[in-house]
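User: Could you check the structure of this?
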Amino acid sequence: MTAAGGRAFVKRLAALLAVVLMLAGCGRAQGVADTRRELEGAGYRDVEVILRTGGGIGVARVEAAPGAPPAETAARVAWTTLPVRFDQLVVALGDQTAAFSYEDLAGRFGPRDPSLDGRQIDEEVVRSGLKLMLLLSGAALLSVGAVVVTGLLALKAARRARAAGASPR
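Assistant: Sure, the predicted structure tokens are below.
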């Protein structure tokens, strides 16, 4: 393998990893980012949207700085934009916390768009874990590939140096 061939291999592997990462991060991350932007547009600052699961219950948590509009406004935004099915929504504005069940939100704001409930939080958590494993595996493969290519190039250079030193003059 030539130096140029080794560099081309590493570049192709890096490009493939970048494409996989872009495709892996599109769905949920984009939906959460859209919800965050909507919350910021509604007057919330330092917004975080966190999805957790435990004991079979999916919890969506919205955190923002104090002094924002009421928790009900954040709950409405999450209800109409967050693209996962959750059992409970927790809105934390500074040290003030309000919890809403799915049924409570349906009663307050009406039926939810069914397309938003297509995926459960626990499915998303598992998907995120799998994507992280894919990312780490890809990075490990890229690292191993770079080490192998570097080793092969070093061996080739050493052989050439030995051959040049051993040749008759």
